[in-house]
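Internal ticket #5521
Category: modeling
Description: The requester needs a full-assembly model to guide mutagenesis choices. All entity lines are attached below as received. Residue total reported by intake: 748.
Assigned to: D.W.
Attached entities:
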Amino acid sequence: MSDLIIQLSQWLLTLTQGAEPWDSYARYLPRLMDGVWITLQLVLLSGVIGFLMAVPLALMRISKNPWLWVFPYCYIFFFRGTPLLVQIFLVYYGLSQFESLRNLGWIWTDVLSQPYWCAIIAFSLNTSAYIAELFRGAIQAVPKGETEAAQALGMSQRQQYQHVILPRAFGIILPAYGNEVILMLKGSALASTITLLDLMGATRGAISRTYLSLEFFVLAGFIYLILTAVLIGFFRLLENLFNAHQRAQDMKINNLDPQIKDKHLEDSVR
Amino acid sequence: MQKTKRFAMSLALVASSALMATSVTADTIRIATEGAYAPFNFIDSSGQPGGFDVEIANALCEQMQATCEIVTQDWDGIIPGLRARRYDAIIASMSITEERERVVAFTEPYYSNVLAFVGPKGTEMPTDADSLKGKTLGAQRATIAGQYLEDTLGSVVNVRLYDTQDNAYLDLASGRLDGMVSDKFPAYDWLTSEAGSAFEFKGEDIDIDDKIGIAVRQNDTELKERFNAAIQAIVENGTYAEINAKYFPFSIY
Amino acid sequence: MDLHGFGHLLLAGTWITLKLAFTSLFFGLILGLLGAAAKLSPIRILRWIATTYTTLIRGIPELLLVLIIYFGTTEILLRMFDKYIEISAFAAGVTALSIAFGAYATEVFRSALQEIPKGQRESAMAIGMTRWQTFSRILLPQLWRVALPGLGNLFLVLLKDTALVSVIGLDDLMRQAYVAAGFTKLPFTFYLMAALIYLLLTIISMQVIRLLEKRANRPWQGARS
């Protein structure tokens, strides 16, 4: 794959004949594509990890037992109430303040000292707080009749969650989750501030060498738009697969369309 | 720090506009510096610009028997400000590069910059490509040090480029970086501070033929020649060496 | 917590953050209203412009927007007029944040306008009001009430997005934390402090928004009971 891109880049270079900005575009194509790949990894990994973290958080959050809901409440409040940039810096530069962490062996050398993993940790923590809130709303939005029916069948609380409520809630949040992943894509550009060469980092690197700031920023914007479109398409597909047999009347799925509505508008912070 | 810099900048702007209003006298030269590149130029706690560049600027003005006004200006806007006639010269540790020579003119160099490797004390750290293989080295983005690191060692070491030099220092201190490449003289300043006391220069200096000059507008040949004569004069009469010694125990000319 | 004398800088930064947020809110609301008006307008080219605007902003990272405006605008101006016009970090920040806020506010205003019963618009037309009169006298006064919850949320997002402007060197709260962390070598302390201040600002904003909502709904409460 990368060989192919390098060949493509060289072929493009013979076409551009030194005309800027096309010449620089062609020359930096391989690095930008590496950046796209890192951006995608960041978004997909933190999207999945964040999702996995969000389920227990949401379940604890809807509990009536204060011992259970206080932690997720504070957690969600903190990560939704502070800028992502602060969170990344807190994880990356902040952790280096504690010298004892450096004695943790591989946890320090392979994870916490790597900008890549620090970015994934920060993004996962951040997105899990948002997804947990979505999940909580969705669990509460599962029609009462369905849980009652499950109860009538003699299902235990656990079975109800496992077989009825959670799968249903997943279907309900899917569009909003897709929206959250797109916001994460935009947020991932902040990884460039901790030296990571994601699409934004590669762009800033190219600019520091070519001084073609406007040209490369515009190109990056264009690539981000394409990535957004691809993600939207992917989630549409997923929605059709997942919700096809249960598109109930009372669920305004179109209202959750990322192009029409924004998650921040959807679930009020309160 | 940043705050005082801004404050000083707005003061300087007010001062320079007041100056323009009262019609500039023939022999007032307005000189811009950045104020964020210690020990060459910085803003001291009283809000005044200071440092090697500033002292050299004052010495040159005295030599030329001119009145000088020193203003501070952010790096990104420093060349555009010169072209817009906000000031007449830039003495801010600016490297003479082909790219810049297309838009401004430079005097003869007033010092030579070299790059150097920095690493933790008490470790062997040969600086040839073979021994550095697999190590993680940092530098500031959009600097000559960053370009050098990418171009000469990019294929064998992990390169990390930082938004600011301060962040590179933080990561060097935390052990995330095995070493750093940077301009030697500012790094010298950091190494002699408390924060950098556990680190030292490694290997040979990297001479990349980086000459530092004074930038003037391209059509200002007269001013350029006056600066050139003054630089030569202060080097010959020992003023330069005096200022040099205040900052570094070795000559940087 | 020992702030090593950087406490007053953090406060000064907080003040700049607030100025940035409120100035951007002002221009963002104007952009949002214009955008919504354009989206609902009968003129196709206006609708097209508004849709392009919101679609672009939804897909482009806010950080990129801030950088494009800060570095790009001077370059465009230089190329167009061959004259260097400096854009301050504050102006660039306000521009970028207003544009981002405006795109999302466009959607809030649009759906709020659509929520107002069609009958009102029709009766206004029936008594001979022009399109503009209907908009300014009938729809606009009600818009505030319907749009408030959505706008409140957008303001909270805006408040957090102000931190991005620190990347181009504006001395906001984030940047002061950055400077203090670099100077004292205590990054965790200062970023945590900054996070807590942002959290405090969020809490205060939420209370104010709630109050505004209560006030805005007051005339309607009587009618309902």
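Resolution: model delivered.
Comment from assignee: Residues 2-266 of chain A form a domain with the MetI-like fold fold (CATH 1.10.3720.10).
Ticket closed.
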